[in-house]
Amino acid sequence: MSVNWKYAICVELLLKKGLTHKQIFEKLVAWGYHGLEITPFTLEKLITEASTAELQSLAKLAAEHGIDLCAMHWFYSGVPGVHLTSSDPETRWRTLTYTCKALEACNTLGVVIVVIGSPRQRSFDPEEMDSSTAYLNAIELLKLAAPHAEKHNVDICFEPLGPDETNFGNTMEDCAFLVDSVGSPRVVPHLDVKQLQSEDTQATELITRWGAKAGHFHANGANMLGPSNSGLDFAPIFEALARSGYEGGWVSVESFKEVPDIELQAAEDIVCMRAAEPK
Asked: I need a surface site. Which of 93, 135, 238, 242 has the fewest CB within 10 A?
């Protein structure tokens, strides 16, 4: 069973090493990646504060190297004054305004996927609200944002995160409830191997169950490293993904921990994923 996935990697650890955008694109080509997953601060300023010319310049540089700016994760992380589940009217307005402007900027960049992880910007205070209110707040905000996602041709992928990171949206069932409640084809589930390992159900079973609905896929481990250092066998994981009917197309390395040689890890990660592809 052959697959036609495209491989990407998240940008932040490469930027921390001090590499320029041009150097990153050159290395991605050399390693065999197809895309780069960016953050709201990849341009050293918030994406919504960047000029159209700055956004177009980065998109042009990526295209010149044959690299797609495929996705943006950490969508709310580090963004001042935004919160997905807040009941405060001013916070909700700031969050919606940022979301819509960021989706427009993604369109300029050619980014077609945004990933809502951002644990601090979605966790709620149980003394201030219950989980039902938190879900209603998030659902309402995403319903308002969905037409803008449609207009700018961007999928909003909601990423479950384990209970060690947040008290909101911990499981794929939670994710499905939120996505179904929003009711937009532009708001879809996200699969993340690190998160899947926090659930009681085996990761391969969850991938099989949810893969056809997922808009994006993160390859990593519970140790917060990429596939080559995750301690996991990615062959059964990729077998489940292939059989699930996953149509997102992208498989993106998301590694959080700095390692002695991030370039070596990035190169080894794509080798590991290629070797794990269903034959």
From this structure: 93
